[in-house]
Amino acid sequence: MKKRILITGVVGAGILGLLVVPLLAGETGGEGASWKERLAATPLGRLITGNFGRAIALKDKLNLTDEQQQKIREIVQTNKAELAQVVQPVVEKKRALRQAVLAENADEKAIRAAADELGKAAGDAAVAISKVAKQVRAVLTPEQIEMIKQCRTENDQSVDQFLQESAAPK
After folding, report:
1. Considering the entire predicted model, what is its pTM?
2. Where are the domains of the chain?
């Protein structure tokens, strides 16, 4: 778990660098292009817009009935306070990790400790979220669940493609 969180932090920092540096340098989208056009011209921009696009299309594709929508709203509302309680520490620990990574005199031990704390908070949140996800799955049809799995697979493939494009020598 510790190693995974550290890797996630490093990947996140790398992604940020891959996005921000070309945008700031004006290396994408051509002269006079807006930041949105420059973003869309990057591997990360294609990743983000693809994932959002799939999520929007999935919502329509699931074709939830009014009854399903109401039941899901009730599940979320019932669990809202608990979810907020477990997500808040994740947000706080993520910020602490960011501060440790970006500190003027970054200390490896402090970074690893902050990453460990984030990992524990993420684990707690994942357990709570999985309980809610199980309740929501009970409202969905097998076909709807399969559509969600397919969307998740496509998102994973999109991330893999982004990483391959980013690692490729220019």
Report:
1. 0.65
2. 2-167
